[in-house]
Amino acid sequence: MRIVAGRHRGRKLVAPEGATTRPTGERMRQALFDMLWHAPWAGRAAIEGHAVLDAFAGTGALGLEALSRGAATACFIEQDRAALAALRANIAACREDAASQVLPVDATRPPRAKAPCSLVFLDPPYAKDLVPRALAALGAAGWIAPSALICAETGRDEDPALPDFTLLAERTHGAARILVLRAPG
User: Is residue 129 assigned to a domain?
Assistant: First the structure.
């Protein structure tokens, strides 16, 4: 697994052994960032210079891809020990320690944010209805800026109830489904 584009293009990322962590693959990340980069409701300005949150971060592939493409900072929320070790190794390999913050907590029970993020990635385990719970908790804790873009990966057949968010785009890739949403604001 590698960073797809930007200043870290081609940088290898490590992932923990086993099936506990399911990293977002290169093709899925490429499709997601192409969609963001070229969409009339997003564009380069939605990434470059912005604060990014990567919740259920796993290897950190989504947040690191955003940093590679010009995001100013990334906060990674992950609670699994093996995933945290891989995440920290990947941040160090990309030399993004100064722009990164790692919080070893549950994304459905986050601490209070110091500042909201305008781009949020959620890639929780499938079939556990974690996207609505995480969005509610992250919003209540101040992590989600008004009108932020939310990119949530779910299982292909999952349909999370998100009445307060505007669906901007939806794509399926194999067993995964990506939802791009606009937060209220």
Answer: yes
At residue 111 the predicted structure's pLDDT band, cuts being 50, 70 and 90, is: very high
Residue 6 lies in a domain: no
- pLDDT for 160 beyond 90: no
C-alpha distances in angstroms, 67 versus 50, 91, 111, 116, 143?
9, 10, 23, 17, 18
Evaluate whether residue 121 is within a structural domain: yes
**Residue 130 sits in a domain of what CATH number?**
3.40.50.150
Q: Residue 86 in 3-state DSSP?
A: helix
- Global confidence as pTM: 0.93
Domain count within the chain: 1
- Could you tell me the residue range of the domain that residue 83 belongs to? 26-182
Digit-coded pLDDT (tens) for 121-132: 999 998 898 999
What does the pLDDT look like over 59-75, one tens digit per residue?
Answer: 999 999 999 999 999 99
Over its C-alpha atoms, the chain yields an Rg (Å, rounded) of 15
Does the residue 165 lie in any domain? yes
User: What type of residue is 147?
Assistant: S
- AA identity, residue 175: A
